[in-house]
Every structure is written in C-alpha cells, then in structure tokens.
Amino acid sequence: MTTDHRPEDGTDTRGTARETAPADSGEQAGEVYGPPLLTPRDPDPAGAEHGRFARMRLGQWLGLAGLALGLMLTAVLVPVGVAVYQQGQARDVLFDRVDPAALRQIELLSAVGRQDSAIRAYAFSGDRAQLQGYRQAVTEQEQAAAAMERHLAGLPRADPARAEIHALNSAIMAWRGAFAEPLATRPPGGGEPPSAELETQGRQAFVQLRAANGRLQSAMTTLHGEYAERLSSRSTTVYWSLIGAAVAVVLAVLALVLIIRRTVLQPVATLTGKVRAVAHGDLARELDVPGPAELAELASIVDAMRHRLMDEWRTTAEARRRIDLQAEELRRSNAELEQFAYVASHDLQEPLRKVASFCQMIERRYADRLDDRGRQYIDFAVDGAKRMQALINDLLNFSRVGRMDRREESVSMEEVLDRALHRLSQLREDTGAEITHDELPALPGDASRLTQLLQNLVGNAIKFHGDEPPRVHIGVERKGPMWEFSCSDNGIGIDPKYADRIFLVFQRLHPQESYSGTGIGLALCKKIIEHHGGTIWLDGTGPGEPATPGAAHEPGESHEPGTPGEPSGGTGPSGGTTQTTTTTGTTFRWTLPAGDDDD
User: Which of 274, 422, 546, 594 is the most exposed place for a label (fewest CB within 10 A)?
Assistant: First the structure.
C-alpha cells in the first residue's frame, strides 16, 4: 500500500531530491556514499502525460490491430471466395454437363449409323442377328438422347440445344418410320433389297436427319463456347483477386509491423537505452517512456529499483569503507603474528635451550655431589624445557598452515610416504612396526605438508600400539573427484564419542606419563587436509557410517617433524585415564581432491 505525500498547495514533488544539500557537500557525499538519493516516481496514470490512447495496454493495441487486420482480410477474401466458387461452378457445368452432352451426341449419331447399316444388312440377308443389332442400336440411340436431355436440363442458355435434340429425335423417328421400320417388319430369311421408292423415302428422311444433327452440333458448339468463356472469365477474376489479396495481406502485415514498432519496439528501445545508461552509472536518469501501459509500468518498476540501488549503494559504500578498515587491521594483525612467530621460533627457544644446557652441565659437573632426588629434579627441568620447545615448534607449524600460499603441484603420494617413513625409521626399528600400503596416486598439493600429515598419522598408529607389534596399512580408493585415504592400525583403539574432540588443539586423552606429545598433532593433520580441500574423520563416525565401538582410549599425537622418531604429543585428559592394552585398532579416513588431469 502506497501513500501519496504531497504538500497542501498541490505541488507535485515526485522525482525531486530527498534532501537539499550544498553542491560541494553533495559531491563529497557522492565520492564516499554514492549518488544523491531521489524519491521514486509514482507511475503515471493511464493518459496522464501521453494521452489515453498512448497509454492503452498492449493487449488492447494488439486487439485493435487484429480487428482491423481481420476486417481487411475479410473484405479481400470474401470476393476471392466468391470468385473461386463461381469458377468452380463454371468448371463443373463445362466439364460435368456440357462436355458429356457433346459426347452423348456423338454416341447418338453413331447409333443412328449402326441402325442404317444393320437394317440394310437385314434387308439383303434376312439374318435375324442383323435385326437384333438394329433393335440394339435403336435402344442405344434413345439412351444417348435421354442422357443429353439430363445433362442439359436446367442449364441457362441450353434451351436451343435441347430444342435441337427434340428436332433430331423427331427426324430419327421419321427416318425409321419411312425406311427402317418397313424393312424390319419383313419376316426373317428373306433376302430382298429395298424397293426404289422405299430407298428414295429413306434417303430423303436421312438427309433431314443429318440436317437436324448439324443444327444440334452447331447449338452444342455455341453452348460449349459460352461456358468455356465463362470459365475463363471466372479464372481471370480469381487470378486478380488472389493478387489483390496478396497485396492486401502484405499491406496488412506492414501495417502490423509499423504498429508493433510504434507501440512496442521503439518504447522498448528507449527504455533499454535509459536502463543501459543507468547500468553504466547514470543513476539520476529518470526512466519514463511512451508506449503501452505495460511498458510504463515496467519503467516505473525499474525506476523504483534504481532508487533502491541508490539507497543500497550508499549503504554498500559505508560497508566497504568499514571492510577496508577491518582489512587494514587484519593486515596489521597478521604482520604482528608473523613477528610473534619469528620471536617464538628464535627468542623464546633460546632461553629454553640455555636452561636445558645448563641443567645438563650441572648434572655432569656436580654428579658426584648430587643425590638421586637432585638428579631427578634436573631431569624434570630438562624434560620440561624440551617439551616446551616441542610445544612451541608444534604451535608454529599449526599457525603456518593456511597462512602460507598453497602450492598447486603434482605430488606423488608414494614419495611422500617414503619420506614420512624415513623420518620414522628409528621408531619403526624400536617397535618392530610393519607398514603396508596400497598403490598411492599422484595429486595436487604441498609435498612438505602432506609428508607431515602422513608422518603424524603413521607415528600415532605406531606409538599407540598394544601388546602385539604395530601393523599399519595406508589404503586409498577413488570416489568421484576425490581420493579417499585411510590409515588403519592394530592399536589400542578410540571410543567414537571422542571423534570430534581428538581434532581439537591441546586435547589429550592420556596423561603425559603414558604417552608423550603436545596435543596438537591431529589438529595439525585436520588443518593440513582442510587446507588442501579435503576432510578427515574417525572411521565409523563419517557421513552415513555406523559408529564402531572401540576402547575408551585415544591415540596420541604426531612425532616432532624436526626430530624424526620422537613423538610430538599424545592425547589425554590432564588427570589421565587407566591404560589398557586391548587391541581394537583405529582407522582414520580423509579425502583429497584428485585434480583435473587425474583419471
């Protein structure tokens, strides 16, 4: 629901600036917050500025155009239809009635000729077959005459031809009465030719018959010519009517195209140009176009969207300014973190090394003066310094993952595993560990980080073993665009309820006295895998996998990458738990992208 806010004096304030500010302050605001904001214009009521006819809806325009086109086509096509109908009538009369009547005339004359031949043959021979041929010819002649009557019945201008048919029939009957029938009444088996008197009467009657046939032929020729001329005239009318209809259709289509161009295309082009100008940054341009009401409504909607964009532009500019400030603060914070990492890796470790060195020197120099408790205190101090040093190194490694650029190079996981096992050679020798693996693929990644990943996982699997010698297997399986790796062992196992906890920093499930470590190793593994675009989980706790119960103990952490063979941390609560040697085994699974070129 909208409300028209207008001053009491009736002044229309649509399209004016929302605020009035000096020019210099407006320019400054435009640089920071975007263009000046305008209140949206209400859509013009139909006919307010361009006339009621110009603001007709597109459906009304097309309805009027369709009505006009329909009337024009009706005015053109009705005469064409009438002409085609008349042409068909003329063709039907000529081809279905006049021409068949002319053919029946030929059959009639032929039947008369056969009558004359048959009756003369009968007169000379007295053969009954000739008499029957005569009677058959008479029947055919009468049928042909009746057919001519039927074809020409009801035809305009056919009366002379029908009169000549009657005259010809009369002449034929006169000829038969004067010549043929007297001969037909003779008994069969005779053989006497016609008398001279009868021959003369027959010749005179046949001359009259031929004269009547000539007049009928002339009448039929005249009738055929009239209807042929009529058909030609109707065909010409149809031809020119079709040409006129085609011209009218072309003109109607052109008129329709002009109407569509005037009412749709030109307003759309105008609106497109204005919208393009707005898209290029001219947000102060008003979107008002002539044309159908739908386009006016569309222009009003786009214009309202333009005003919303201007409002959002100002908000976005302010948000961008705040983001820039936060980004600058983050850059400064990252620089401080880099400086802290440098200090932690050099300045903090130097005092620890001195503490450990001097404690060891005290132990060597004053060994004969120290009792067992004194030597134990010195061992505690040295061990604490070394553990603090290992913790600092692990924290540095953890902080570097993700802050350094990811190197996208093809890495052979076979070589990565070889390097990791080389670093663990002392631990493997001490524990008698057996390491097996599937054929490992090559994939894109950071070789040093992936080496650290396998060193941590395999080191944990060796460190947290039961009574039997450690057995570790690295498996791999292709699943769509990802490689799914697994690290399985026969160690003490992990309760699935700790599946999320084991990947957190400083989370330990064993006391320091049971398993050494800093509590960072598995968290570092998770960060390395996520940095490569993969995920890691404890087997039996992944998506769609049933939980697999294990021992209520957790594997520890990784070996110190800088000191091969020495564990860098174990996991366990600070108070410790009761250790067991139950050999349930642990399997970690993780995924890594296979890369575009990998099959």
Answer: 546
- Please report, for the domain that includes residue 144, its CATH number: 1.20.120.1730
Q: What is the mean pLDDT of residues 359-371?
A: 76
CA 155 distance to own-chain centroid: 67
Angstrom distance (rounded) from CA 585 to CA 472: 10
pLDDT band at 120 (very low <50, low <70, confident <90, very high): confident
Neighbours of 11 (CB within 10 A): 8
Q: Could you tell me the two tokens for 230?
A: 């009529």
pTM across the whole model: 0.41
Q: Residue 357 is part of which domain span?
A: 348-400
| Pairwise CA distance, residues 488 & 437, whole Å | 10
Q: For residue 439, which phi and psi values (nearest 5 degrees)?
A: -70, 115
- Domain finish residue from 264, 295, 326: 264
Instruction: Give the whole-angstrom CA distance, residue 271 versus residue 203.
Output: 99
Measured at the CA of 367, the angle between CA 365 and CA 368, to 5 degrees, comes to 110
Q: CA–CA separation, 74 vs 249, rounded Å?
A: 11
Q: What span, in angstroms and rounded, lies between the C-alpha atoms of 524 and 449?
A: 10
pLDDT score for 506:
61
Q: Are residues 415 and 457 in the same domain?
A: yes
Q: Beta-carbon neighbour count of residue 431 at 10 Å?
A: 14
The pair of structure tokens assigned to 320 is 């961008």
How many angstroms separate the CA atoms of 21 and 164, rounded?
Answer: 110
Tokens encoding 56 = 């007709």
Question: Does some domain include residue 212?
Answer: yes
Residues 6+ apart with CB under 8 A from 136: none
Q: Which of 264, 289, 317 is the last residue of a domain?
A: 264
Do 388 and 420 share a domain, yes or no? no
Q: Determine the 3-state secondary structure of 538 from DSSP.
A: strand
Domain count for the chain, please give it: 3
Claim to verify: residue 479 and residue 569 sit in the same structural domain: yes
Task: Confirm whether 48 is domain-assigned.
Answer: no
For 131-176, how does the pLDDT look when each residue is reduced to its tens digit (9 = 90+)? 888 889 899 988 988 998 888 888 888 888 888 888 888 888 988 8
**Other Cβ atoms within 10 Å of 547 Cβ, number:** 13
What residues form DSSP beta bridges with 473?
436, 488
User: Reduced to 3 states, what is the DSSP secondary structure of residue 541?
Assistant: coil
pLDDT one-digit tens code per residue, 333-349: 877 776 776 666 666 66
Least confident of 251-260, 274-283, 326-335: 274-283
Residues 377 and 254 occupy one common structural domain: no
> Are the C-beta atoms of 520 and 570 separated by less than 8 Å?
no
Lowest mean pLDDT among 53-57, 352-356, 460-464, 499-503: 53-57
Q: Are 404 and 435 in contact (CB under 8 A)?
A: no
The model's pLDDT over 514-524, given as tens digits with 9 standing for 90+, comes to: 555 566 778 88
User: Residue 284: inside a domain, yes or no?
Assistant: no
